[in-house]
């Protein structure tokens, strides 16, 4: 359905739709989400010690989409009109259906996300995840789990990245810290949480 080349050389699918939203529209969305989403600071237990997650997060979706992150089950907040509109546009372009979105706010280059795969069981076997970038540009880095192979993508405001196929089994991804970035970035990752009966 996505008429773009698969950027992933093996073991998965990555599609990059640069300028999915044009700069003025991306900036308008950034301002709206920055002001109106319910940004929270989360903490995780690392060796029994509570550590702040280096970014702000929040979770929106259909009522049944309970999602576990930072070790805690999160109930979704109801869709805002703007989030629902973005979801509809991404569904139309990608051909995938989503029922929730995890929003991340990186306040500046000191905020980050470590290497991980989005492989929680509530996402199903080969999840499609659509990630919209707003605000400042950041490096998104993929690393193959077995081979010494990295794939770097600089995500700019308005870009849409879709991860699909077997990618989450074979690759990790991260948003590394950087001294160069002084401004905030918002990332919305649209996901489909399977109903409990389907797990
Ligand atoms: O901020 C990004 O581009 C990545 C976010 C991500 O990997 C996630 O939310 O699982
Ligand atoms: Fe992720």
Automatic annotation (TrEMBL):
Transmembrane segments: none annotated. GO terms for biological process: DNA alkylation repair. Pfam families: 2OG-FeII_Oxy_2 (PF13532). One of its GO terms (molecular function) is catalytic activity, acting on DNA. InterPro entries: AlkB-like, AlkB-like_sf, ALKBH3, Oxoglu/Fe-dep_dioxygenase_dom. Its cofactor is Fe(2+). Residues 97-194 form the Fe2OG dioxygenase domain. Gene3D superfamilies: Alpha-ketoglutarate-dependent dioxygenase AlkB-like. Keywords: Dioxygenase, DNA damage, DNA repair, Iron, Magnesium, Metal-binding, Oxidoreductase. SUPFAM superfamilies: Clavaminate synthase-like. PROSITE patterns: FE2OG_OXY. This is Alkylated DNA repair protein.
